[in-house]
Design brief:
Length: 335
């Protein structure tokens, strides 16, 4: 890791051979005032390292996170197509996705299946868990290079397909995902965002969308493995969870699943391979209350360990980015 020059002071820089870079803030610093002075330095650090952990900032509530976000001069992202419910505190600032604490959230890039994903993520730890619960990070370009070329070339050529079945029991509901329960508005959104859809008996909704699996970073053009192919695939689910969902909804009615861009099913061996490569490139650091983690969502994938005890991590999404900015390798749209 190269040395990091910050334009703000005072900062105790801790240099380590792995991401994220760690910045230590002097005790008693005002988070909002510090963020205002540190903005340019943070931008440079995230651009250099892909992620920056700010330790000692003392964030205590979602309002403080929103205030810090406001000082960074970035545009908040209004979340649409969420895969799990979450509470919205203010524009761009949310609770973590509702996900069982005993089940890990595998590596992914936030909202990489949408046409308006965030370029920047902020994670703020208001209270750390008793055990586990770290947010893992992995370099998307290194993961792409480490995966078998034949596999990545296929995904780069075809993209990947996400299928979703919305209901009122598992995952986000139609209203939670699209911000409305008006069918006409949902259909307009789907048409505008290259999503095919079909309403089911009882009011459920099934959707399908094809997206790029590899994009170029808008800052330097570096090719990045940018998707949720493994995370949202049925074979990443715990075996007992997958068995229950298949029994309950059928193999074609899972809340979410992924396929190759041509519609072919992705084998369990491929999903395990992708997750194992992610694991080989994952860096973890336990949370401490008050921490702030800034992540370049295109360059850096993130995950969440299983955990025990209270864990309150607020998520802020900013810098809306479209695939056209990243030079997608396929034309997004349903098959």
């Amino acid at each position: 890791m190269t040395s990091m020059e910050m334009t703000v002071s005072p900062l105790d820089r801790e240099r380590e051979p792995v991401r994220p870079a760690v910045l230590r803030v002097p005790g008693g610093a005002d988070p909002v005032g510090w963020a205002a002075g540190a903005r340019d330095g943070l931008d440079a650090a995230v651009a250099e390292h892909g992620a920056v952990l700010v330790r000692g900032l003392g964030l205590r509530d979602p309002e403080g996170v929103a205030a810090v976000l406001g000082q960074l001069a970035v545009e908040p992202v209004v979340e649409r197509e969420s895969f799990a419910p979450r509470q919205t505190y203010s524009p761009g600032v949310h609770s973590s996705s509702a996900w069982p604490p005993n089940q890990p959230m595998c590596m992914h890039h936030e909202l990489s299946y949408t046409l308006g994903f965030p370029g920047l993520l902020l994670f703020a730890c208001l209270s750390e868990p008793t055990t586990g619960g770290a947010t893992g990070l992995a370099d998307a370009a290194e993961v792409l290079d480490a995966l078998p070329r034949e596999l990545t070339e296929r995904f780069e050529r075809e993209g990947w397909t996400l299928t979703r079945s919305y209901n009122d029991e598992i995952g986000a509901t139609v209203t939670e995902a699209f911000g409305t329960d008006d069918r006409d508005a949902v259909e307009r959104y789907c048409r505008d965002h290259a999503i095919s859809f079909a309403w089911q008996p009882g009011g459920g909704l099934r959707t399908e969308q094809r997206r790029s699996a590899v994009v170029r970073h808008p800052a330097d053009g570096r090719r990045c493995w940018f998707n949720q192919i493994a995370f949202l695939n049925e074979w990443t689910l715990a075996p007992e969870v997958r068995e229950y969902l298949v029994d309950e909804y059928g193999p074609d009615g899972l809340p979410f699943n992924t396929r190759y861009g041509d519609g072919e099913a992705i084998g369990e061996d491929v999903v395990q391979l992708i997750n194992s490569v992610y694991e080989e490139h994952t860096v973890r650091r336990p949370w401490e209350a008050g921490d702030l983690l800034l992540v370049d969502n295109i360059r850096t994938a993130h995950s969440r360990e299983a955990y025990e005890g209270p864990r309150d991590v607020v998520v802020a999404m900013a810098s809306p980015t479209g695939p056209e900015i990243c030079s997608p390798t396929i034309e997004e749209g349903p098959r």
